[in-house]
Amino acid sequence: MKLSYIVENRIEEDQPEKERHSPLLSRGSELTDTELLEKLDSFGIKISKKILNKLSLEFISAEELSKWFFKTPNLQSKYTTDMEIKRVWIWLTVLWERWFPKRINYEMVDDRMAYGYDELDDDNVISGCEILLRVWYDVLKIMKQRDIKTLEEFDEKFRGTYSVSDMANDIEDELWSAGNKNKKYLKKRISFCRDFLKRFPEEDSFRIENFKCAMAESYLQLGKFRKVNRLYKKWLRQAPEWGRGWVKWSDCFWQSYGDEDGINDLDRAESILKQGLAVVDVRDRPVILDKLWSVYNEKEDFDKADEIQKEIDELEDGETNYIEAPRKIIPRTHKKIPRNKPCPCGSGKKYKKCCGNGINQAEEKGVGS
After folding, report:
1. Does 128 lie in the same domain as 77?
2. What are phi and psi of 350, to 5 degrees?
């Protein structure tokens, strides 16, 4: 995929001055409106606020608009190189943002995303979340206006510095961190995930499941144990093959941290895990078994734990008939896994956001010690 002009510009901005090969957007920002209009006029492009107002409704980016100008038959310009088109793009980008800052284009989305990620990189998590949430709503507005159905389709057209699809995951993740500083961000996380699930029900199942877990996790942190219980009942009734859902639901009765009534009901946790294992085509069976092994050990029912261990060993030896290849079994050890390390279950999430979620929170509250 060819890089967009805004991405190429960002790369050029990071280069030493002697190694730059293209004009910079930042230099264009130093020019006055009159100077910008004069430069456009020198290319045969007659523009005014009224004209740009109309064109900005027709085009989604200054890059798209600048390329359109060079395809116009009556354009009185001898310049057709990519370098010259980029110059026109710079001048149009600056004027567009100055004159119509609320008429969001791809360049504005890219700049604001970059700013939000810079804030997160500087550990300004609340500021970063607020910025990226505003960008997200801008993206949704563009998708509605342009009849873009999926995030993948948006990213293909956007070609930005960052993927909007990845940004959605990052917003969900960072809202959890912000929620640890201010609980209102847990509520924002719930709203974000709920809205995402309604808008994009056809997204890949792994992402959908992660967002469901994020909703439940946030409700649990807010002490809404009954709400969490109802959600998992509904979700697993709709998709009983969701193995990790059974595990996460069982955690609410064993390793939860919101409502004391849900912290240490090992019998209920055992019952939920058994329900999951009874589903013929349940995914991630080894992960459910491993969790059940842990429950039996916590209950000091070592005979049943040994039976589960035998079944796990059989699965590890390849004697299995479930649909998906098993993920790595979580090591049964009391050695603490750093919260920011990848989860050993193989989900791709950080340990603090996956299997270590309830464990670490319970440890912080002294549960089970």
Report:
1. no
2. -70, 150
Distance CA 300, CA 171 (A): 40
List the one residue out of 187, 145, 151 whose CA is nearest residue 166. 151
- Write the CA distances from 295 to 138, 268, 270, 288, integer angstroms: 46, 10, 7, 11
The ranges of the chain with pLDDT < 50 are 76, 257-262, 320-340, 351, 358-369
**Is residue 92 within 8 Å of 62, Cβ to Cβ?**
yes
CA distances from 129 to 90, 137, 218, 238 (A): 29, 12, 16, 32
Q: Name residue 156's amino acid.
A: E
Q: How many Å apart are CA 240 and CA 238, to the nearest integer?
A: 6
Q: Tell me, yes or no, whether 62 and 108 share the same domain.
A: no
The token pair at 8 is: 């190429």
Total domains in the chain come to 2
Are 113 and 195 within one domain? yes
Each residue of 84-125: pLDDT tens digit?
A: 899 999 999 999 999 999 999 999 999 999 999 999 999 999
pLDDT of residue 358: 46
Query: Are residue 148 and residue 132 in the same domain, yes or no?
Result: yes
**Are residues 169 and 189 both part of a single domain?**
yes
Give the pLDDT confidence of 9-38 residue by residue, as tens digits: 999 988 888 888 888 999 999 999 999 999
Both 129 and 181 in a single domain? yes
Q: Containing domain of residue 195, as a range?
A: 104-203
Residue 156 has which token pair? 């293909």
* Backbone φ, ψ for residue 235 (5° rounding): -65, -40
Pick the last residue of a domain from 178, 203, 228.
203
